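Study this:
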Amino acid sequence: MESIVDVVVLVAISVVGAALARRLGFVAPLVLLVAGLGLSYVPGFPEAHLEPELVLIGILPPLLYVAALQTSVPAFRRQIRPILLLAVGLVLVTAFAVGTVVHLLLPSVPYAACVALGAIVAPPDAVSATAIARRVGLPRRVVTILEGESLLNDATALVLVRLAVGALAGGAVGFWPIVGQVALKAGVGVLIGLAGAVIAAKLHRKIVDPLLDDAVSLLTPFVVVMVAEELGSSSVVAVVVAGLYLGHRIPYLLSATSRLQMDAVWRLITFLLEGVVFLIVGLQLRSIGEGITTGVGTTVAVTAAVIGVVVVVRFLWMYPATYLVRLIPRIREREERPPIAVPTVIAWAGMRGVVTLAAAQSLPDDIGNKDLFLFVAFAVIVFTLLLQGTTLPWLAVRLNVRQDTTSADALAEASVQYQAGRAALEALDEKADGAPSEVVERLRALIGSRSNNAWERLGNQQRETPSAAYGRLRREMITAERHVFKIARNEGRIPEEVLTRAQRELDLEESQLQRSDD
C-alpha cells in the first residue's frame, strides 16, 4: 500500500507542476525537474528510482509510439536526409567524440566504457525538444526534423550502448563495425514494426467497439517492443515504424468515435508518463550526487568536458550537414538554402531526457566509475533542459525563426474545404431522393457554414467573425439547456439515463464548437 501511495503522490505532484508550468508559461519538464530536485531535500519525502527496464519497456515505447502516430509521414519522408544525418550520423560522432575526451581525462577507464557514456548522452529527448519547438512556434520543417531526429536517434544510441558494454568483455569498438551493427538491428526492427503494424491494422478494421480499439492501440507498442527485444533487434525502430504506419492509416482504420476516444486516452497517458518521469529525474539527482566517490576536481572536469563536447559537436555538425550537401546540384535545385538562423536554432534544441536516464542506469555495476558516469549523464540532462530549454524561445525570437505557415495553412484549408464541400453536395444530390426537403436544406446550409468558416480565418482577426459569434452564443444556449436537464433529473421528472444521453449529445456539440475559437 505504501508504494501505491507513493505513486499517487508522484502523479498528483506532476499534475500540479504541469498546471503551474502552463500558468507561468514554462515547459512542464523544466518545472517538474526543478520541483523534483527541491523535493529530494524535504525530510521524509519518499525516494524514487526508475529501473532501466521499466523505462525502456514500459515508459519509452508508448511515448515514442504516440509521437510517431502524430507525425506526418509525407513530411517525415521529405526531411529524411537531415533526420538521418542527425539521428544516426550525429549520434555516432557525438558518442565517439565524448568517449575520446573522457578517455583522455580518465586514461584508466577503458575506451569502450567511455564510448558507452558518449552514447548515453548523445541522443536529444523525444519529449522536451518537440514540446518546446511547438510551443515556441518554430517553422514546420524545423519541427519535423526535430521530431524525426528524436524518434530515431534513440535506436542508434541504445544499440551503441549495448555494443560498447559488450566490447568491455574483450571485443573492439570501431566506428564502421558499429555502423554496420546499427544498420542490421535497425533493419530487423523495421521488419518487426511493419509486421506488428499490419496485424494491428487488420484488427482495427474488424473491430467496431471503440473500447476494443483503445485496447488494441494500447497493447500494440508493448507487443512490438517485446518481440523486437526477444529477437535482439532495435525495439525503438520497431515501435516508431509501427506508429508511423498506423498513424498514416488511422483515418481509414478507425471510426470517428474510436479516433476521438483513442486520442483522449493517449493524451492522458503521455501527460502522466512525461510528468512523472521528469519529476523522478529531479528526485534522483541528490542521491546520485551523494553517491559519487570520484574526486571533486575530476568530477567537475569530466562533467564540464562532456557538456561542452555535446553542445559544441552539435553545432559543428549542423552547419556542414546543412550547407555542404547543397553543393550537390540535384539537392541545390530541389531545396532552398536556409538562412543560418535555422541550423543555429536546431543546434541549440538538443535537450536530453528519458533515454539518457534509462541508458545511464542500465550500465552494469562492474563498469569502471559508474557513479561518475551516472552523475555526468544526469548533469547533461539538467544542463540542457534548464539552459537550452529556457533560452530556446528567446533565441528563436532573436534570430526571427518563427512559424510562418499560419496564413498559408488557412488558405490551403479554405481551398480544400471548398473542394470537400462540392464533393459533399454532389453526394447529397445523389442520395437525397425521398428525403424531406427541410433536411436537405439543413445539410446544404451546414456545408456552406463550414466553407465560410474556413475562409473567415483569412480575414481580420481583430473582429469577431460570424462563426466565432455563432460558437459563443451557441455555448451559452447549451449551458442553459444543460441546466434544465439537470433540474429535471433532480426533481425526478427524467431518469439518470435520459440525462446522460442528453448530456453526451450536448458535450459532443460543445466540443465541436471549440473549432470556432482556434
